[in-house]
Structure formats: C-alpha cells, structure tokens
Amino acid sequence: MTTAEAALAVLRWYADAGVDEAIGADPTDFFAADPILSPKTPPPLSGQAVDADEPNWPQRNSLPPPPIAPIAKTNAPSTDEAVAAATNLAASCDTFEALCAAIEAFDGCALKNGARNTVVFDGVIGADLLIMGEAPGRDEDRVGKPFVGRAGQLLDKMLGAIGRSRTENTLISNVIFWRPPGNRTPTATEVAVCKPFVDRLIHLNQPKAIVLAGNAPLQALLGRTGITRARGNWSEIEGPGSEKIPVLPMFHPAFLLRRPEQKRLAWHDLQSVAARLTNS
Ligand code: URA
Asked: Ligand 1 center to residue 279 CA distance, Å?
C-alpha cells in the first residue's frame, strides 16, 4: 500500500466511524498555536538557509507542542444578556418570516460562528402536529433545513406511517438552530439561549400536539432528562393563551437507526400521536 492509499484508508475509517469534522467543541486558532504556521519573523527567502539556532525558527520536531490557544471570546454577551436579547427579539415577531429573520440575525449563540446555515423549520406552518428535534447535523447545516439526513429520512417514513408528512400536515423544527461542532450534545446555555425563539415558534404555530424527539427537546420543553423513561407519556406545556398543548416525548430517529429493535416502542408512540390528533 502506498503512503497516499494508507492515508486515505485511515480517513475512510474515521468517516465510517462518524468523525466528519476535524474540530473541537470550541473554536481554536490553530495558526496561533503553531510557531511554524505563525512565525514571529517573516519566512526566509527561498534558497536562504534556515538557522536552526534562530529562536524564531524552531525545527518542527525539536520542540514540545505549544499549548493550543482557544480564540478569545471578546464582547460575548453573558448567558443572561443573550437570553434577554433573544426574549425581546422573539416577542417582536408576529410571523414565521419575521421569526426566521430574527433568528438569522441573532448573534447571541456561539454555535452560529461555526455553522454554515441557520436551520429553523421545514413543513407546513400552522400544522396541528409539530415535531421538535435536537439540533441540525451535517446534512441539515449544509441544506439549511431540519431532518434531511438519514435520521430525517426515517422520520419521514415514521410520519408517513400515520398519514403525516412535512409537505401536507406537519411542521418540523429543532430546539437549537445551528449545528453543534461534531454533532455534540448542545449545552444547557445553548438550549437556554435558543428557547425564547422555540417558544415563539410554538406560539405562532399553535400546534394541537408536539412530539419531542430525544433528550434535548425533552430537557428544553419539559425540563426533564431520561427519554427512555419519559417516552410514550403525554404531558402538557402552556400555549400562547395559557391553553395546554399536549406533548409526547419519543425516541429520536437517529437512536432508532442505531437500535432498530426499539422501533416497536416508537410505533406505539406514533399511534398514540395519531389517535390524539384524530380525537382533538
Ligand atoms: N437530528 C435532529 O435532532 N435534528 C435535525 O434536524 C437532524 C438530526
């Protein structure tokens, strides 16, 4: 095997294992961390010998690796400030169009800095069923719509099984509007900062039932953790006019892709959703 083939084989192995981004949880200035990439003096002219004793020109393998410096978070609002700004902005939105524009313009969530797109919703505005997921993944970030990757395709099939679709009678969104790096779980701060927009989306849409797909929406909307225990049990959140909106936690489609034997429980939950909406 040539060196190039070996390198490609390793990359393929990483991709198959789900490692699709060479990044961490926080933005990192790798140029600043590497004295070769970020020299204190200009590079030598071509043909000019590099003096290994010159302190600004360390040999790549002769120094211990420098500490990696996270990018300074200058002028970043505190969580309270960001939540307050999101709350004011969300309250000023009377239409979905205004809400999407407000979320896109909002700079209070650091995830936006690493995302290609702001992903707000897909489907039918005003639909009686709202599906709330976690956060955009790689495909959603690229396309700008929620649930368009493999998990989204499974979600579409699940909805189809109860006569539902995003083109006819269902609205789909997430509790986070920007892709977390490497698809990590959103932090409590990120969830809190996005929450006023999520509440506004629910208020503007006025669904008759909401499905919480996975732990993040369960935590964001019901303040609970533990989807395995919570799934299949209806509870309520307060709607715009203090009316109650029924909410059902369910397994996330991405989980069902990994654990297909759990689809039996998901089917049970889907039928419960269908029955609830038929009787409402
Ligand atoms: N998973 C989610 O929770 N939401 C998406 O939009 C895609 C995958």
From this structure: 29
